[in-house]
Each structure stands twice: as C-alpha cells, then as structure tokens.
Amino acid sequence: MSEKNDWLAEAGDSTRLCHLGHDPFSYHGIVNPPITRASTILFPEAKGMENPTQKYTYGTRGTPTTDALCDAINALEGSAGTILLPSGLAAITIPFLAFLSPGDHALIVDSVYGPARHFCDTMLKRMQIEVEYFDPALGEGIERLMRSNTRLVHLEAPGSNTFEMQDVAAMSAVAHRHHAVVTMDNTWATPLYFKPLDHGVDISMHAATKYPSGHSDILMGTVSANAAHWERLKQANGALGLCGSPDDSYMILRGLRTMAVRMAHHDRSARAIAAWLEGRDDVARVLHPALESFPGHALWKRDFKGAGGIFSFVLKAADKAEFKAKGRAFLDALQLFGLGWSWGGYESLAVLVNLSDRTICKAPEDGPVIRLQIGLEDVEDIIADLERGFAAVKALA
C-alpha cells in the first residue's frame, strides 16, 4: 500500500480519483470497497471496552466504508482528518459549533450560502455569539473588523448566487494574526480546482451532495481540517453524534471516480454558455468568475485551476416591478432545464435567486438574477432551451 501511495501522490487528478480510498488487495482483490454497515461492534473482552484499542468501537465512530471515503477526501484536501455529515449545511454548522462559544465574535462573508446565514442569524445569535457580515472584496481590509473576541472567519469563494471572489490567502493571514480559525465552503470548485488548506484555510467544508455525488441522489457533507484543528473538530462531532452512512459513503466514493471527467465537462459547457449569454442584448450582466469581464476574475485566475458548472446572469429589466414577472416567465418556458434547488448533478437546473437577506452585497438593480446549473447535456441543446426563456420574456412586452 505504501508503494501505491508513493506513485499515486504524483499522479494526475483523474488517476488519483480512480484509485484513492481503497486498496483492492486489502479485501480479496475486490475493486470497490464493500459496504460495511454497523451500529453495535463487539469487543473480545470486558477490559477492552474500558480503554478501547481496537479500530472500530461503534457505528457512529466509523466503519471501513466511511473510512475509505475519509481517506480519499484527506488525500484530495491535504488534510489531517475528515468527518462525514448528513448534509452540506451540517458541514458548515458543525465547525461553527466546534469553534465558537457564547461571547465570541464571528465574521461571515456576506455572499454566504443562504441556509448558513439563517443558522448564524438564529442558532448562533441565540447562543449569544455575535455575527458580523463582511464584503467579500475586503481582502486585507478585513483587519479593521477583527476584534479581541473574533474567533472565526468564514469564507465562501466564489460566493453563493452572485459568485464574488475573495482573496483567501490574504484574509486567512489576517485572521491568523488575530488567532481566529478560518473556515471555507469550497463546494463550487472542489479540491480539484482549489485547495483551501494550501491557501491558509484551517477547515475546508464541502457539500458532497454536489459534484462528488454527481447524480442528484445523495445528501452528504464533508469537513476536512488541518492538523492544528483536527482533534477539536473530531471531538465536537463525536459529542454531537452526527455521521454519514456507509451506503451513502459508498455512493460518494463511486461518484469520485468520475468527478474529474464530469467537472471538466461542466466547466467547459458553462464557460461556453456564459460567453454566449454575455453577448446578448437582453442580458444585463453575467456573473461567472472565469469571464474576463467579471470583477473577481483576476483572483480566480490567480488561485483556481478551473471553474464549476454553476453561475448566474442578470436578466435585463427596466423596472423593478417587472423583475419577478420576467424571471418567472423565463423559467416557466424552459423545457430541458429543471426548476429545482441544489446543483452538481448531471442535469441542468435553473432558479430565480432571492438576495433579500444580503446586508452588504445587495441584489443587482438592473434585473432579476437567474442561477444556472449547467449539466452534462449538449451545449447546443442547452442554448436552444435558454432561447425559449428569452422568447417568453420578449413576448411579455
């Protein structure tokens, strides 16, 4: 196994994804790790139960299947340890609970995932933790927001729905000077296109529901920590009793094997469609970091190896009173695109974005924001469907 790890560490992304997380010859040569379900795990003698030395003690603490996935994620993230959770939202909330206490101050990027904002504004505030939102473009300017009780800085690059970039390394350096832990939601890029821990982040969170699953049928979150923060994260999660199931872990491992191929397809198609949208008169703006016209493009180009398949555009509308009607007309005319939450699966999806909860990064005033998840369909068919949406909007005039 050690010889395999040696050559695998130097291999390309697709090669690594094909082989990470399992040694077939550790289990009769079977290519995929078997699904090991467990709640009760037996001990050979009573003494062993008092100070357990055996690897597995109870189902919530891991099984060979969940460990295989954790090993694969650790190899991708460069982390000291990974926990598996039932959802992407849980992957954000557990580190917050692990590293924040009553009286602490937390800085949260204003373009944060909506349900994470809801958790901050309800659960954290109820725990007497002060939450302050900041402009994602702040960079080193975040220094002026740091306080003596600032314990956590949370990043998401690019931001949810409007895709603002952040200078992750600069913000992490400032946070560390003030002894704050840095967490980051890296779902959009995955560790294939951006490795947060290499840029100063302490804890990388991921909704494995998205690209690692790839098929819109599994809910799971992963949280990966560096060595300095791993033990505290693991202990907090153990106290809360949350875990990912072996069956879901098996399916995420299966999805990982093709993630590089799928991500490349998502990226290529999304960039082509974003460029096509940018050339339309009925589009006010396209919010995609890989476009040179996007304000955060330089940061994306400097730090990221690729782009995800999800981005937004602003549908041109002269009057705010028209925003919702035009957005709904566009979406209702679509046939290939599904109307549904989430993303990262094989199918294209579209939603009308609600940005009413923002405090700093306000909603665009030149039209409604429509978020597109570009799936694995042919680009020509996706564009033809979008044309249906634009035609429906034009028919309203």
Automatic annotation (TrEMBL):
Q: Which domain of life is it from?
A: Bacteria
Q: Does the keyword Lyase apply?
A: yes
Q: According to the UniProt record, what class of enzyme is this?
A: lyase
Which cofactor(s) are needed, names only? pyridoxal 5'-phosphate
Q: Which NCBIfam families match?
A: cysta_beta_ly_B, PRK05967.1
PANTHER family with a match to the protein in the record: CYSTATHIONINE BETA-LYASE-RELATED (PTHR43500:SF1)
State the name under which the record lists this protein. Answer: Cystathionine beta-lyase
Q: Which organism is it from?
A: Rhizobium paknamense
